[in-house]
Amino acid sequence: MEDRGSGPELILVFSGKRKSGKDFITDLIQNRLGSEVCCILRLSGPLKQQYAQEHNLDLDQLLGPGPYKELYRADMIRWGENRRNQDSGFFCRLATSGDQKPVWVVSDARRLSDLQWFRSEFPRQTHSVRVQCSEETRVQRGWSFTPGVDDAESECGLDSGVEFDWIITNEADAPSLDEQLQPILKAAQEAASLACGTVSGSWGSPAETKKRCSK
Are 158 and 112 a contacting pair, CB within 8 Å? Predict the structure, then answer.
């Protein structure tokens, strides 16, 4: 619906279970493309900011990887659901306001309403990516089942009923991430080239595209 002229040429909406490796993969994509071309948008960022303000909590620790956020995760999920029930696009709008990079990587879509919002606002640009791995691998990475978290919509909302554009299997015995990410990186390079005024099909190396987009 909202195809903003100064907005992105490509939006990659990532989802996956806890400890599936979403952040690792989205950080890898940004590193390959460069921050001049690609930005990472975390829907949990504005959610945690609002939650911290209303509950007088330490935002830096809520955003970090440590145990602090786990103390509040279940309540924060319930609080976020109440906000979304009032306005399903509330956190999506906050996360996307102001950024004009040609490629957006949304690292943490968790609900069907998240994906639906991007497909409604940016129908041409939006593509969905699922990161998956076995439960055994997730346990090895430190995951354990938490009632009220792992059985909530925030973890299960995109488990079924979605036809993803790409599926990345983040396992030791799967094809390499370089191989699996190749079509995604190619699409991102082509999108960046269009946004930076280069001729389609002549985008060249990632370094060349970064240079063009930083002018």
Answer: yes
131 exposure class (CB count in 10 Å sphere: 0-12, 13-18, 19+)? buried
The widest CA-to-CA distance across the chain, in whole angstroms, is 52
| Token digits of residue 158 | 């995109």
Beta strand 38-41 pairing with 166-169: unpaired
Distance separating alpha carbons of residues 36 and 185, to the nearest angstrom = 15
pTM (predicted TM-score): 0.83
Name residues whose C-beta falls within 8 Å of residue 49's C-beta, 6 or more positions apart in sequence: 59
What tens digit of pLDDT does each residue of 137-169 get? Answer: 999 999 999 998 899 888 999 999 999 999 999
Q: How far apart are CA 141 and CA 121, in angstroms?
A: 35
The CA distance from 6 to 197, in Å, is 13
- Exposure string for 103-128, b = 16+ CB within 10 A, e = fewer: bbbbbbbbbbbbbebbbebbeebbbb
